[in-house]
Amino acid sequence: MSDAPQTEQYWYNTKTGQVEKGRQSSWENRMGPYATEAEARAALDTAANRSAQWDRDDADWRES
């Protein structure tokens, strides 16, 4: 066990649409962890942007 202080983490609850400080809900409904509340609030946008980038990368790979 580490003696280092733990930083607080934030999670986005996909069921309630709320940001949670710490692990409050089931893993089935959580996205994260995120370092800030703002990052957690943007979880769905971040996931959508990453998926779109992966789709573009896949298309580029298939064309090469």
Based on the model shown, name its key terms.
64 residues, alpha+beta, three-stranded antiparallel sheet, 41% helix
In short:
Helices cover 41% and strands 19% of the residues.
**Strand arrangement, largest sheet?**
2-1-3
Mean pLDDT: 91
**What radius of gyration results from the CA coordinates?**
16 Å
The number of strands is 3
**Main beta sheet strand tally, sense and closure:** 3 strands, antiparallel
Structural class: alpha+beta
**Which descriptor suits the 3D outline?**
elongated
Could you describe the 3D structure shown?
- The protein has 64 residues and is an alpha+beta fold.
- It has helices spanning 37-41, 43-63, and strands spanning 10-13, 19-21, 30-34.
- A three-stranded antiparallel β-sheet has the order 2-1-3.
- Strand 1 and strand 2 form a beta hairpin.
- The relative contact order is 0.17.
- The mean pLDDT is 91.
